[in-house]
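the two lines:
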Amino acid sequence: LTNNTSKDEL
Amino acid sequence: MNIFRLTGDLSHLAAIIILLLKIWKSRSCAGISGKSQILFAIVFTARYLDLLTSFISVYNTSMKVIYIGCAYATVYLIYAKFRATYDGNHDSFRVEFLVVPVGGLAVLINHTFSPLEILWTFSIYLESVAILPQLFMISKTGEAETITTHYLFCLGMYRTLYLFNWVWRFYFEGFFDMIAIVAGLVQTVLYCDFFYLYVTKVLKGKKLSLPA
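prediction for all of em together
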């Protein structure tokens, strides 16, 4: 239930 | 990148710089919780370890470096340079009551059971409650300098704007991160009482003081 591939946020 | 995300980041940056300037110009950290600032330094350190493993953009890297640098500079000013002005007696929140449960939660509820991912999760959870020593200090002394309230307002607005960013990203990119969203909601809720006081008092030119 998650989409955490993008860590572009601060 | 959308407008909410960008203004959120800038609001966060403004908060950090307002606090640094306040301490530097007044040569004093009176009314500032050193414990909250240590927690924020831990938050940035744990979250931005990916600086060493992956490159996302110049914007991303430079903001991370600025946030980390400012966080440690703030801690240095409070605990070393202007230590004499630090009001430790009123900064009595027991941070182990935050760090230990948050650490346990990060180990239990995360996206991937790997060291970097657990540290990232830990930083997200810790950030959501890291302001509590500061809010506790204000409730204990019953007042806050106006510049301190501007700092808190910018810091609170940052995660509030991120909530709008996540709504945006969910609709337009199908992106969502449950851990960040839930922690971000908790973080924003913790500021609600303060937001109310900021709008009803500080914006009307009054000092933020709580009834005895």
